[in-house]
């Protein structure tokens, strides 16, 4: 029983590690960002991706379900 439990835990860890590796892969490195459209901007005039080129941009997606 103990061996089966250890094998199941090991299998789950392998699956999680493989999924994490796929999620953390830098798929967008070196590619242009998609155009960003927002209906409302807070504390700023509407910006385009061209205006933000070369700058670090942090997008914070927040929702209350």
Topology:
Elements lengths: L1 H22 L25 H4 L13
Tally of domains? 1
Strand coverage percent: under 5%
The largest pleated sheet is described as: none
Rounded radius of gyration (Å)? 21 Å
Structural class: mainly alpha
Question: Would you tell me the overall average pLDDT?
Answer: 80
Say how many strands there are.
0
Low-confidence segments, ≥5 residues, pLDDT <50?
none
What's the oligomerization state? single chain
Please write the string of helix (H) and strand (E) elements. HH
The helix count comes to: 2
Helix-residue proportion = 40-55%
- How far apart, in Å, are the first and last alpha carbons? 41 Å
Gross morphology is elongated
What's a concise summary of this model?
With 65 residues, this protein is mainly alpha-helical.
Overview of the molecule:
- The structure is a single chain.
- By secondary structure, the protein is mostly helical.
- The protein has one domain (2-52).
- The protein contains two helices and no strands.
- The mean pLDDT is 80.
Q: Keywords, please?
A:
65 residues; elongated; 0% strand; mainly alpha
């Amino acid at each position: 029983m103990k061996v089966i439990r250890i094998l199941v835990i090991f299998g789950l860890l392998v699956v999680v590690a493989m999924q994490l590796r796929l999620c953390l892969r830098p798929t967008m490195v070196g590619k242009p960002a998609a155009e960003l459209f927002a209906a409302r901007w807070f504390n700023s005039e509407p910006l385009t991706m061209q205006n933000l080129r070369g700058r670090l941009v942090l997008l914070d997606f927040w929702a209350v379900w």
